[in-house]
Design goal:
Length: 261
């Protein structure tokens, strides 16, 4: 059987003061209650009826009860509004999807220009969908950590922005986007060109670190991309993706790591 501590059962002096302040804020309701009861007593007196003494006390009590109800109702409304805000914050503002069966997540065998020649490339990424009911401004996705399963030390641990669509080396890449409610937008994690070299993000990205990104993938295996997604008035979302790297772009896949509930 659950027992409550004395602290939870005790009514503090501060709580009493807060309650009285809430009632005083509704002094009009108190006066309305007193007025209505006083009017009733006055009518009865004019009719020659005897008014018991308790009726005068009742007038004050009814006014206090009326004001107390108004104070309680106001606090209840505040609590309900706060509860709705908390529930809204618990719900994710962005939905993340990844996989060959997710439209816009992958782009296979895309004809591209690679260093002055015609070639093809596979784009591996994910899709963000705004489910918040309002526009999310300045949405940004950052790769914050890259590791290979089975290795102790991470391969890469610097913040660097991932690009949104388009996936065309001749078009300017955007690392921030305003996503309207209900809108979906793809972002790129990596690109594997026809020579099976792994490039960061999308073609046309500027890799600003001394080590070559493709050198992280010299061995076959599972590579984990840790991504942080942010935006104005949007809770930060941290997600993980696994690139199953087989050494061949056609048989390699990218998948979302489900969060443990």
């Amino acid at each position: 059987m659950e027992t409550r501590s004395p602290e939870k059962n005790a009514i503090s002096f501060r709580s009493i003061v807060t309650f009285l302040q809430a009632i005083l804020q509704h002094w009009r309701a108190f006066l309305v209650g007193v007025f209505l009861n006083s009017l009733t007593i006055w009518i009865l007196q004019n009719e020659g009826r005897a008014i018991p003494h308790w009726a005068y006390w009742l007038a004050g009590v009814v006014g206090i009860v009326f004001a107390s109800f108004r104070a309680w109702d106001e606090e209840r409304r505040k609590a309900d509004a706060l509860s709705r805000d908390v529930e809204r914050l618990k719900r994710p503002a962005l939905e993340v999807e990844c996989g060959d069966d997710v439209k816009g997540s992958m782009a296979r065998n895309r004809p591209v220009g690679i260093w002055g020649r015609k070639g093809v490339a596979d784009f591996f990424g994910f899709v963000l969908t705004n489910v918040s009911g309002k526009t999310i401004h300045k949405c940004r996705c950052d790769l914050v950590l890259l590791e290979r399963i089975g290795m102790i030390e991470p391969l890469f641990s610097e913040f660097t922005a991932l690009p949104f669509a388009p996936r065309d080396p001749e078009q300017e890449l955007a690392t921030e986007a305003d996503i309207r409610s209900g809108e979906s937008i793809p972002a790129s994690l990596c690109t594997i060109i026809d020579t099976n070299r792994v490039r960061f993000g999308s073609l046309g990205n500027k890799w600003r670190f001394p080590e070559q990104f493709e050198d992280f993938f010299t061995e076959f295996g599972d590579y984990v991309f840790h991504v942080r997604i942010t935006g104005d008035d949007c809770p930060t979302v941290s997600v993980k993706f696994i690139l199953v790297w087989t050494g061949n772009r056609a048989t390699s896949i990218m998948k979302l790591v489900p969060k443990v509930q």
